[in-house]
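Table S2 (text version). Query chain:
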Amino acid sequence: MPFSAPRITVPKETRTWVNNELRDIKDRYLIGFNPGATYGSAKCWMPERYAELAQALIEREKVWIILFGSPAEARLNASIFAQINHSNVLNYTGQTTITQMAGLLSRCKVLVTNDTGTMHVASAVRTPVVAIFGPTDHITTPPFPISSGQDVGEHTLIKKEVECSPCLKRICPIPEQKSDHHKCMKLISVEDVYKAVEKYL
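Corresponding structure-token output:
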């Protein structure tokens, strides 16, 4: 049945907080990164590729990166933050309310994310999403609005067709020592995601 995509309206006091937080970078592009995922590590694109993507975007496009995540993802994002090693990165992992996160997302040109809740919050505040899908089903859990194919309206889905996906597993069932371990994510290159992000800048 047809239905309207969910929307979030950011309260005035939150918009004021966001403006204060971002007052020094308001004239630059902001790109959100959400490298974690609640439902298991199999949903996560490799941390080093997030870092490499951030470095390329900062160098070539002169953007700022905002890292989003829950307190449980603090170690993951701290590692990515250290790998990027640039002043144009803001780490808000575990430091905001959901409303504040929505406010920050609303200021981003685009969010690069795994298939997780932050993806849907970004969509609800009308921020375009580049969503990286591996073991989960891009037909059942994409960002709204839903349409056919991998170009979902204002959003872009990145997914490689492999025989075992979607497996819906929390952890890749293929042993780590085998070359096709986590293949659904390993096949997605930094350049694949860079090209998807670039069209929103």
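Notes on Table S2: Residues 12-198 form a domain with the Rossmann fold fold (CATH 3.40.50.2000). The chain has one domain: 12-198.
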